[in-house]
Write a structure and sequence with these properties.
Strand order of the largest sheet of chain A: 1-2-3-4-5
Strand content of chain A: 25-35%
Shape of chain A: globular
Largest interface: A-B, 21 and 27 residues
Order of helices and strands of chain B: EHHEEHEE
Low-confidence stretches of chain B: none
Number of strands of chain A: 5
Strand content of chain B: 25-35%
Largest sheet of chain A: 5 strands, mixed
Number of helices of chain B: 3
Distance between the termini of chain B: 14 Å
Mean pLDDT of chain B: 93
Largest sheet of chain B: 5 strands, antiparallel
Helix content of chain A: 40-55%
Structural class of chain A: alpha/beta
Mean pLDDT of chain A: 95
Helix content of chain B: 25-40%
Distance between the termini of chain A: 32 Å
Number of strands of chain B: 5
Oligomer: heterodimer
């Protein structure tokens, strides 16, 4: 799994690439919590995720709850088919704010 | 009734090995005629089952081993996963309420949602556990 971090206007985007599984989900979790601990709004780009397991999903749930607690914005963008299939199994597709793209998020946030 | 062993592998209970397991299950499921969507679902269930062994049976002790068998029993795929860890508390293995939003506890839900039948138990030798998951494919 590769992790890419980009700074946007008033938010940080973390992009995961490849398989987000038990072997690397602690790294994913750390990268997410680092952003939230810095009090930054967070977008997680899942467009290039080929697989995500329940440990990866757990990191997303923790991020969602932490952001909510800290009154920060949180969303997922460009969720790949593989990741969406797992989110649907967990019925989280109706819980997380999901945007097709960063541009869509910016328009909705404006 | 004929039972065909599609594969049997023994591998270290390490998270780094799960990508190989996923690739093997995916390819084998496709070889026996599962569509891509079903193959992906089977991969999720088997991956979560192996994760449970690594995290909850061996508790991160990566010296443990997992044996995974994939069988075709007249149109029903059967996955048998065996570990040699201390017997687990079978009553503690249950899916969580999805309305109770919290990190963790989703693996068993995924397995139950994807598979038709699941049977868990202890090995007769007094050490080790098994999980058998079945999915009808035709």
């Amino acid at each position: 799994m590769n992790i890419n971090t980009l700074e946007g206007e008033g938010y940080t985007i973390i992009g995961f690439e490849g398989d987000v599984d038990l072997s690397c989900s602690p790294d994913a979790r750390k990268s997410i919590l680092d952003v939230l601990q810095a009090d930054k709004n967070l977008l997680i780009d899942l467009a290039k995720v080929s697989y995500i397991d329940s440990s990866g999903v757990a990191s997303l749930v923790e991020a969602y709850q932490t952001a909510k607690k800290q009154s920060l914005k949180f969303g997922l963008v460009g969720v790949s088919e593989a990741a969406m299939s797992v989110l649907k199994l967990a019925r989280l597709d109706k819980v997380f704010p999901i945007h097709n793209s960063v541009e869509e998020y910016e328009q909705e946030d404006a | 009734m004929s039972i065909e062993t599609l594969f049997e592998i023994r591998f270290p209970a390490k998270a780094e090995r799960l990508c190989l397991v996923r690739a093997l299950v995916k390819r084998t499921a496709e070889l026996v005629g599962c569509c891509s969507d079903l193959s992906d679902k089977l991969v999720i269930a088997v991956n979560e089952a192996c994760m449970n062994v690594i995290q909850h049976a061996y508790r991160g002790d990566d010296l443990g081993e997992i044996v995974l068998q994939m069988l075709n029993n007249d149109g029903k795929l059967r996955f048998r996963i065996v570990d040699y860890a201390n017997p687990i508390d079978l009553d503690s293995v249950k899916p969580r309420d999805l309305d109770d939003l919290r990190p963790g506890g989703l693996g068993t839900h995924f397995i139950d949602e994807i598979m038709d039948e699941c049977d868990r138990g202890h090995l007769e030798e007094g050490i080790g556990n098994y999980l058998e998951m079945t999915k009808k494919i035709s």
